[in-house]
Amino acid sequence: xxxxxxxxxxxxxxxxxxxxxxxxxxxxxxxxxxxxxxxxxxxxxxxxxxxxxxxxxxxxxxxxxxxxxxxxxxxxxxxxxxxxxxxxxxxxxxxxxxxxxxxxxxxxxxxxxxxxxxxxxxxxxxxxxxxxxxxxxxxxxxxxxxxxxxxxxxxxxxxxxxxxxxxxxxxxxxxxxxxxxxxxxxxxxxxxxxxxxxxxxxxxxxxxxxxxxxxxxxxxxxxxxxxxxxxxxxxxxxxxxxxxxxxxxxxxxxxxxxxxxxxxxxxxxxxxxxxxxxxxxxxxxxxxxxxxxxxxxxxxxxxxxxxxxxxxxxxxxxxxxxxxxxxxxxxxxxxxxxxxxxxxxxxxxxxxxxxxxxxxxxxxxxxxxxxxxxxxxxxxxxxxxxxxxxxxxxxxxxxxxxxxxxxxxxxxxxxxxxxxxx
Amino acid sequence: xxxxxxxxxxxxxxxxxxxxxxxxxxxxxxxxxxxxxxxxxxxxxxxxxxxxxxxxxxxxxxxxxxxxxxxxxxxxxxxxxxxxxxxxxxxxxxxxxxxxxxxxxxxxxxxxxxxxxxxxxxxxxxxxxxxxxxxxxxxxxxxxxxxxxxxxxxxxxxx
Lengths: 422, 159
Fold this sequence. Notes:
The structure holds 2 protein chains of 2 kinds. By secondary structure, chain A is an alpha/beta fold. Chain A is built from 13 helices and 18 strands. Chain A has helices at 5-14, 39-48, 73-88, 103-110, 141-150, 175-186, 208-216, 232-238, 301-304, 307-317, 335-343, 346-353, 403-412; strands at 24-28, 31-35, 60-63, 93-95, 118-121, 135-138, 152-156, 160-166, 195-199, 225-227, 259-264, 271-273, 281-283, 296-299, 327-330, 356-357, 378-381, 397-400. Chain A has a 5-stranded parallel beta sheet. In chain A, helix 2 crosses helix 5, helix 6 (175-186) packs parallel to helix 7 (208-216) and helix 10 (307-317) packs parallel to helix 13. The longest helix of chain A is centred in the N-terminal third of the chain and has 16 residues, at 73-88. Chain A starts with a helix and ends in a 10-residue tail after the last helix. The relative contact order of chain A is 0.14. The model of chain A has no long low-confidence stretch (mean pLDDT 98). By secondary structure, chain B is α/β, with parallel strands linked by helices. In chain B, strands 4-3-2-1-5-6-7 form a 7-stranded mixed beta sheet. The two termini of chain B are 24 Å apart.
């Protein structure tokens, strides 16, 4: 019986010729990731159990991104603890303020993950790296500790759902609209415990930033991982960047899928997820003028804080003003994205439109800092979750959208189709 | 091993942001996390919960973030066991890894009501609603996972 891409990567890392869905395996890890929220819990587990060595100090990444630059004394104390651990064990990829970016924007950019690698991260959006043809999945802090000690993790081999993407996206449709459309279709547990494999001739029209965004939100459908096959777009992105040896895996022709959906990218419209689940989607055509008035717009995060996202927002903002009463916060994902956006003149456009530009941080996405909502406030956001209380007060609301829709909505003052402000 | 307690009942898609809001993730203290457990879905939960109580929810419990703070907060609040129709996969791993007993049983998750007294036999997977007298059979864990639980969590099973 044939294997899926994900199954092949898992088999190779477990030293097996073949694996089957449901099989429990132990596999060798190429990268173990944590952030400033999850690393301290992992470090406590590591130390309380008397561990005295890490398996490989080049294969651990600790990225201080969630509450940094530190928002309060408690957050600063967690980073201080992580920094001391990183110094003690000489963790090569400990990234503090000045080097850090949002972890899932940073690891691909730095070439710490790439085609065929097996990565776990104590952050649910670790599934992002499937865009590069890696098997990558979120775990908890105890798994991170065990990974740091042994270099291994246990996995239940997932079955898969195949998304056969055809056609070419039109107008302002981006990767974000594609993944919101899919989550709206299959629901927040539609891929529970499974792989989401994105294939088909349509992927040639999705650049790496679109793919990273799509794989990033696989977790919002409950998936274990999201994965794209390696093609010229991947090879070009990883060339001169990936620090490991890329290995390209392709699904067998007789690989078994639980389901296959064919999706015409040309039919997808700009899509918004309403509170309080990513599956509550509507297209912009189904949202009335002035129906959803917004108080805040956030453009950033591990989902949409990359250069293509900032360019898409700038295209909308150029020569326009953000509506009175709307606060707009733009958060480039990494230091190098920040520099590039500055050099391209995007910051002039943002600031002249009335937005603010932040240092890289997860910040408001999880209600950490840099844009917390009060009771009754609404935000349109390019982030990934719109759960109750996600960006602040339990009675605030988050509407998930693409950078183009978020920027257009900031200009209009309510959620709107980008076509209507251009 | 057994558990017995009063039920706190929740619905579908209980996410880790309502189990422990991110505004409290600036600490790793189990006690501080427990003080805010379920705060954004049931602000009275921490004042109602008693040592040994049981949490019952429907599908996709623990969806969202990978924060291990979520099962830690539930365990440290005194909850002895979580029964759900299904669990989100990272929560499922985390609960096993930290030794919070969880059971998947769709029928029990749907029928058991808030405030019922429920007992659980972890060896057999039998759940008894002592208020109604009805019994349910939960899915047994694979042997691989039973081994982790018997050794007292993931770290003990690898060291």
